[in-house]
Amino acid sequence: MAQLTLAVAGMTCQHCVKAVTQVAMGVDGVVDCDIDLQAATVTLTLAADADTANVGERAASAIRAEGYPVEA
Ligand SMILES: [Cu+2]
Question: What is the CATH number of the domain that holds 26?
Answer without folding.
Answer: 3.30.70.100
